[in-house]
Design goal:
GO terms for molecular function: long-chain fatty acid-CoA ligase activity. It catalyses: a long-chain fatty acid + ATP + CoA = a long-chain fatty acyl-CoA + AMP + diphosphate. It comes from Terasakiella brassicae. InterPro entries: AMP-bd_C_sf (IPR045851), AMP-binding_CS (IPR020845), AMP-dep_synth/lig_dom (IPR000873), ANL_N_sf (IPR042099). This protein is an alpha/beta fold and about 600 residues long. It is built from 20 helices and 26 strands. The protein has an 8-stranded mixed beta sheet with strand order 7-6-5-3-4-8-9-18, sandwiched between helices. α2 packs across α6. The longest helix is centred in the N-terminal third of the chain and has 24 residues. The chain is globular. The chain starts with 11 loop residues before the first helix and ends with a helix. The model has no long low-confidence stretch (mean pLDDT about 90).
Length: about 600
């Protein structure tokens, strides 16, 4: 943790301009292209953003306009965002995995006038909905391939717009910078759409005051320093990646790396060797499963010794290194050189001083495991409406099962009646775009109502569940489905678990197997299968899952035990309306879809 952090009273694009002046030749961004990492300095970052801003200005974008971005993570994403912000415009990110209908909703609701698209696939989504987007003027495309036959009055190439802006720079750059100098912290710079797990996504407006406060929290709480490395790979339209890739990085002047593709993340992590890393629980579950399988395959005495080392080191894994006894330090060093160092290299995080899990609750088992093998693993909690993280564990004081105390100037309290977490802070967003009613319901007397039920213990926040998800059984017992689901997902063979229990005599669940780990298990047992459905329907797989559920049940109170379950024969899918773009479960949609299977469990 860095104490006494002081950030200038500047907006995010003003800070970018300051870095271009003060540290022009330091590397701000790196993009992997055909196997080579291409650097972009702070000066280049700023000038590319200015040139694109001048190109956008020629297309009619101005202060208060909305620029959409529909792409995987790459340097053009962040320069497009900064270009919009330098103009005084607002950027609106769209998930590249979203179907055309969802894309059209965000662009129409968000009043997007110009959109930056990665490629032909994303451009086709816009053209398909063009007639329902009255404010849309132009599509700007990053990849050149396949656009010869596209309408020139609608589709432009990114490079052409940048070049047009560069030609205007001599005459218009000073006026652009005069406008930049007039910006204030109360200006809105970013609109992030919520995941929409319970309805239509809402556009959360984030001001530069919000972003600056969150940048302050990143530097103070996570201890990241100028020039350190970060790998950007989670969707940039999600507030967590926005925080660490854009406004947190500009506040902290650290280096952001973009890999070649989402499919190369593990190799990219090894090459970048980041000092700071964020993973959602599913990423950590997959990494833990990969390590588990790797060690099982090592077999014999190696696996037995590895298990012994885990058992020896687990009791002191939450202690900071300087607080460990000499005996504990020696035990860890032995385990480190025998196994843990190689495992840290295997996941690419040996040089990291902070690795985080966020965006959804992570099971204590996962946190415990990575802490035991020596990774500086913490859990953070936040929302779109808090501009990113609002609480964070610290390496000096980890309380298992909590998400730590508030960050920066966050004032936290639990509602006396409902237990809902309330937040008052500069981190609290400016409101929902074109939805004053929802804003008034969410921010009451300056307090943000998060919708999460919590217990606050010595300042540390323990998340119980979403207020709307708390279940009451037929016997009158309150249950947290998320807690039960996370306990089940600690099994390497269970990818998703949807708990049923509201007004029921006992708890049941819909279970989705992990095709990778269950597939490897099936091969080791010489069980043939052809596809996911075939694998999930195998009686031996059902028995495997049943045994896993029994094991995980023992970790919970009897009332929370899963008595019956139904194995899903297809993977939950965003296109089918079962999960959001961030893979959050749409509980109501799934329970409605599988109503027959659920009722059969209680027949």
């Amino acid at each position: 943790m860095n104490a006494n952090i002081s950030l200038p009273e500047l907006t995010i694009p003003q800070m970018l301009q300051a870095h271009a002046r003060d540290i022009p030749n330091e590397v701000a961004l790196r993009q992997k292209d055909h196997g080579i990492w291409q650097p972009i300095t702070w000066h280049d970052y700023y000038m590319r953003s200015c040139h694109f801003a001048l190109g956008l200005q020629e297309l009619g974008l101005c202060k208060g306009s909305h620029l959409g971005i529909l792409s995987e993570n790459r340097w053009e994403w962040v320069t497009s965002q900064m270009a919009a912000n330098i103009l005084g415009a607002i950027s609106v990110g769209v998930y590249p995995t979203s179907p055309a209908e969802e894309v059209a909703y965000v662009l129409e609701h968000g009043d997007v006038e110009v959109i930056v698209c990665e490629d032909q696939e994303q451009t086709d989504k816009i053209l398909e909905s063009w007639d329902s987007l009255p404010k849309m003027k132009k599509i700007i495309v990053l990849e050149h391939k396949g656009f010869r036959s596209y309408p020139a009055d609608k589709v432009l190439l990114f490079d052409d717009v940048v070049q047009a802006g560069a030609k205007r720079a001599e005459a218009h750059l000073s006026a652009l910078e005069e406008g930049l100098a007039q910006q204030t912290l109360s200006d809105i710079g970013l609109m992030v759409y919520t995941s929409g797990s319970t309805g239509r996504p809402k556009g959360a407006m984030l001001s530069y005051k919000n972003m600056r406060a969150e940048g302050h929290a990143v530097l103070e709480t996570l201890g990241v320093k100028q020039g350190e490395r970060y790998l950007s790979y989670l969707p940039l339209c999600h507030v967590a990646e926005q925080l660490l890739t854009v406004y947190g990085a500009i506040c902290g002047a650290y280096q952001v790396n973009f890999g070649e593709s989402i499919r190369t993340v593990q190799q990219d992590v090894r090459e970048v060797a980041p000092h700071l890393f964020l993973g959602v629980p599913r990423i950590w579950e997959k990494l833990q499963s990969a390590i588990h399988i790797k060690m099982v395959e090592a077999g014999g005495w190696r696996y037995a010794l590895y298990q012994k080392m885990l058992k020896i080191c687990e009791p002191f894994n939450l202690k900071p290194a300087h607080e460990r006894t000499l005996g504990e330090k020696l035990k860890f060093q032995l385990a480190y050189w025998l196994f843990f160092r190689a495992l840290q290299n295997f996941v690419g995080l040996r040089r990291a001083h902070t690795v985080m899990s966020g965006a959804a609750p992570v099971s204590p088992f996962i946190l415990n495991f990575f802490r035991t093998i020596g990774l500086p693993f913490i859990e953070v909690y936040g929302q779109t409406e808090t501009t990113g993280m609002v609480t964070s564990q610290t390496l000096q004081d980890i309380r298992l099962g909590t998400v730590g105390p508030g960050v920066f100037n966050a004032e936290l309290r639990a509602d006396e009646e409902t237990g809902e977490l309330l937040v008052k802070s500069d981190l609290v967003f400016a409101g929902y775009y074109k939805n004053e009613e929802a804003t008034k319901q969410t921010i009451v007397d300056g307090w943000l109502h998060t919708g999460d039920v919590v217990r606050i213990e010595d300042g540390h926040v323990r998340i119980v569940d979403r207020l709307k998800d708390i279940m009451i059984t037929a016997g009158g017992k309150n249950l947290s489905p998320t807690e039960i689901e996370n306990t089940m997902k600690a099994s390497p063979y269970i990818k998703e678990c949807i708990v049923i229990g509201e007004k029921r005599k006992f708890v049941s669940a819909l279970i989705q197997i992990d095709p990778e780990t269950v597939g490897q298990w099936a091969e080791s047992q010489q069980i043939p299968y052809t596809n996911f459905k075939n694998l999930a329907e195998n009686p031996a797989v059902r028995e495997l899952v049943e045994n896993e559920i029994k094991t995980q049940n023992e970790k919970m109170a009897t009332v929370a035990h899963i008595r019956k379950f139904h194995l899903l024969t297809k993977e939950l899918d965003h296109d089918d309306g079962e999960v959001t773009a961030t893979m959050k479960i749409k509980r109501a949609s799934i329970t409605q879809k599988y109503e027959t299977e659920i009722e059969a469990l209680y027949a």
